[in-house]
Amino acid sequence: MSTQNTTNLSRRNFIKTSALASGGLLIGFNLFQACKPEAKMPVDIASLNFNDFNAFIRISDEGYVTIFSPNPEIGQGVKTSMPMIIAEELNVSWDMVNVTQGALDTKNFQRQVAGGSQSIRFGWDALRKTGATARQMLINAAAAKWGVDPATCTAENGVISNANGDKIGYGEVVKEAAVLEVPEDITLKDPKDYKIIGTDAVNVDIDKIVTGKPLFGLDYKAEGMVYASVLRPPSFGKKLKSFDATKAKQVNGVIDVVRIGEKLKAIENQAKGFTRITDKVAVVATSTWAAMKGKKALEAVWEDEARLENTVDHDVELFSILDGKKFDTRREDGNVKKAFATADKVIERTYESPFLPHNCMEPMNFYADVKADKIHLVGPVQTPQWAAGMIAAAYKVKPDQIHLEMTRMGGGFGRRLYGDFVLEAAEISYAVKKPVKVVFSREDDMAAGTYRPAIKYRIKAALKDGKVNGYYLKEAAINGNMYGLIPNFFPAGCIPNYKVDTGNYKSTMTTGAWRAPYTNFLAFAEQSFFKELADELGRDHPELILELLQNVKGTKDKRIQYSGERMEETINLVLSKSNWGKAPEGTFQGFAAYYSHNTHVAEVAEVVMEKGMPKVKKVTVAVDCGIVVNPTGAINQIQGGAIDGIGHAMYGNLTFKEGVPQARNFDKYRLIRMQETPQVDVHFVKNTKSPTGLGEPGLPPAGGAVANAIEAAMGKRIYKQPFISELKPESSILG
Amino acid sequence: MPNYTITVNNESRTINVDSDTPLLWVLRDELNLVGTKFGCGIAQCGACTVHIGGVAMRSCSLPISSIEGEKITTIEGLSEDGSHPVQEAWKEIDVPQCGYCQSGQMMTASAFLKDNPNPTEEEIRQAMHGNICRCASYNRIEKAVKVASEKMT
Ligand code: FES
Ligand code: FES
Fold this sequence. Notes:
Chain A is of the alpha+beta class and 735 residues long. Chain A has 21 helices and 28 strands.
């Protein structure tokens, strides 16, 4: 029995079996019950830190295994890695496994959500037990057939053997196994015996991706389906007064033009935190192009409903919060006041970040067919159950009258947690009584975002006798603040006098979770600040961090989220792999380490100067995510996270004038491209600890590591994102 | 609405659409070839890249009226069975994260390698610079183009 179990599973809630009509063994699991985290589900979706799962195994008479991946695949790789865990314990070869995306199933499953890099972490125990239970039932069935003790049988590669040398395939005992009692005692494999976990499994959808097969929401089609393009208020603070559809209706292919919003208002209280409650105009047509053209031909009149905010207003508001006294204290240790009063030196710095849109490569879209007694929904959404719940409330139908299918998603990054596009598609379908696909243009997508809001941090440190004796961080953010656990990340527990305060400004703009919420910027601020402290103390940056980490090792403080021991090992790994401190002439290194989403990451960025501008050439990353389930997928996630972190720190910037987003497409909004991309060299700390997520944790340290490398190269400290504006204030944004 | 005839993946197709309809939407909505993706609609991201007469072009910004009679290859027609060296390399290197940008990346790469079968690292980075990958799978794209070039020579 493995010693890795950290979750206590109640057998009764865990498994139920049923024989398939077509033959085969179907095992349904309620992983939500199995894996309920200790903490409560947060009410604010931006703070979604826990994830819940369900899974299905199906074994055909021939011995092929279908594993239903119940959770949304947004590019984070769970559609490959989660079934790998089941297959491992099932003792089948990966070649025999076919992975299928499960639909939303509210009868058998409690929740199906993607977010917070929690899939693997919360799925780990339950997925292994899923596979192991099925394996044991198959063995029991074979043993009964042979009349031998199951304990004398083994299973390997989908074949069961006994001591007499008899062999039988899974597919041949599947029917018998399906009607057996679910065993109470199952044995999980020792990690050293793993054959699938820890080996490279290529993305399960690879063949479809490279041949251009329909896979994404935008690719979905159904009989009689029409397309819709939606006109939304052009600015935050304005609402629809009236519109004239005469010209729109003259566009070839336009079928109808409808005002929507009534259904949204009907569920206003539930939907409010997720999307803007406002009336819109939908142009419905026989093709996407006709719908888009029709929308352009609409003539709408808008009226003010709230303050039309500007980025400069946000700056004023956030600074006034930082300068003021209205804060919520999130954590306080020791006596911060005294630490600052008695300091040898106090250092205070302010860090600033802008709004960011998510810019998923696949623009928001969804399919809906709303009939009186039946609602069919298909598309890319990270929170299918939330979406179905809203639809059930709006159309007064029972959950089992809704069928929601998830497609592969062309990116999520948090944007698809907010199912505004599902509600739109449904309301349009309801209005025109047809199956409808709503398609956002890139302009729609960028202008109707749930943005990463602008945030400012003011961090102050009290230095005393060559040590950091006090640390005080203030956060001023828009529409929300760092959630529960973050104040208990590093350096909490490392510095005796420590305080985190947060203050908030309520804006009309829709904001939400963006890959590694809050920490995506906080890590840059914090790790830039520590570099400056290290310089002030005449210390090496990672050496100072390692010294501070000694204070948190073996902590009894249950609130502390990270591990001093694991972070130390991760930092040591990155220092050795990057040849820290031994960069060749002309190459400048910067360091940052950050724990988030239960994974410890340390990064060293290397910068060279080209034509007076810094260029990031290489990033070395060390990661402790416990057991690495699928190394090829894991490396891809970390490389992507690091480059995404650099790209957004360097270039990401969305500003507003009179409530209007100033960039709406990639001509004005710069994303990192190939030639700005460093090589990212990824190393994993080797251990047999339960695996943790990888979709987000690679991102937060990247900005800090790069800023510190730029400082080393140019002597310029960066306090504000995007870096590009700090480096070259007058630069045109597309290079 | 006028009729337009184009050759798509070696098949002659006649479509009846408005003259300003971009090839992208003709492929996706009219011809059911959804491998070509919509990313920006303004020739900035490369998700919609196809070959026109063997040259990589942005289908979102090509009105159908401008390509009457042209020979077009989409990702679906890059090879019969997914065995083009670029496709093989993409599988071998396990390039995709979400996968959405990848058909555009592969169409850019395959046209580029046809003209320059033995590119340097810098040439690869330059050639692929126009294609955005929001998931930032750039390291693997770069590597896969290299591997594909080795497969082709
Ligand atoms: S969709 Fe054509 S270049 Fe972006
Ligand atoms: S793989 Fe997601 S956009 Fe490239």
